[in-house]
Write a structure and sequence with these properties.
2 copies of one chain form a homodimer. By secondary structure, chain A is α+β, with helices and mostly antiparallel strands. Chain A is 44% helix and 18% strand. In chain A, the strands form 2 sheets. A 3-stranded mixed β-sheet of chain A has the order 4-3-5. A two-stranded antiparallel sheet of chain A has the order 1-2. Chain A binds a DNA duplex through helix 2 and helix 4.
Amino acid sequence: MRPHEIAERLREFERVCRRRGVPLTVQRRAVLESVLERDDHPTADQIIEAVKQRIPGVSRTTVYRVLDMLVEAGVIRRLHHPGPAARFDGKTRRHHHMICKKCNKVIDLESAKLDRLSLPDVESEGFEIDDFSVHFTGICVECRQAKAQ
Amino acid sequence: MRPHEIAERLREFERVCRRRGVPLTVQRRAVLESVLERDDHPTADQIIEAVKQRIPGVSRTTVYRVLDMLVEAGVIRRLHHPGPAARFDGKTRRHHHMICKKCNKVIDLESAKLDRLSLPDVESEGFEIDDFSVHFTGICVECRQAKAQ
DNA sequence: CTCCGTGCAAAAGGTTTGCACTGGT
DNA sequence: ACCAGTGCAAACCTTTTGCACGGAG
């Protein structure tokens, strides 16, 4: 994410904290920055490493708690990928995913056409849809090349 | 899943085993039946409980290993839902999901219209798509009613 | 008869919790 | 000054691994 966009998101987070009446600590700032700086989908562990660059003595527990808080506040998203570890995504705009069956890598996919997908009529069943995303499964370039050899 | 459909799938699995030259053990049969009998998306733990109804002394390890083997053979699917535990699905046909943001429940959604979604042009980037599914997020009936009160 | 599959126990992640202390507002 | 946030350690839950035994082909 570009620096000015990160700054914008941090200001937005400042407002969220004030509205909720919760303190804006250095840890919270550092965790959010660490998530926003990456364009992939880091695990909690990867974020902890990044936060340690800023706050060497930071505790794993705190990072886990801050991540939960950020997800709860809608500032970042929690993703559910293949593999045991949860992943996080600072991108809150609608987007889609390509998931490689071989290496489990997840690649973001922006597509205005997919974004305009017409929703099925499930509202009648009582389910209230507020967003969607399309997951494609297949084989990524790297794995395809590896297989070819 | 209906009994005759389960029987059909078990016969199919028998063929898969023979083709692969691997033994069709009672454990493998029991695990597959336990997955097919449920229409939701059970965790490994729920499957272990179900298998214990048939084979009381069955080991967790074995169930985990059989589940891996079934996924690998393409007989069942591994799903990645909210929450720490992996989930399994005996349904291998294309289908879609509605995920409740409140209770994390995942509901299957069949839609011929969604099945015909035209794929974006990502093949040019080297990603080879073999399937897709649409994930809707929102609030389920139960949670909406609970909130209204 | 030969392996592969199984069961047990222990280890290996990833995440959560209890409690005393520290730091924002 | 107050109360929520933090750090530490230990617990917890899910899954994987090493090894000896037993059953399927």
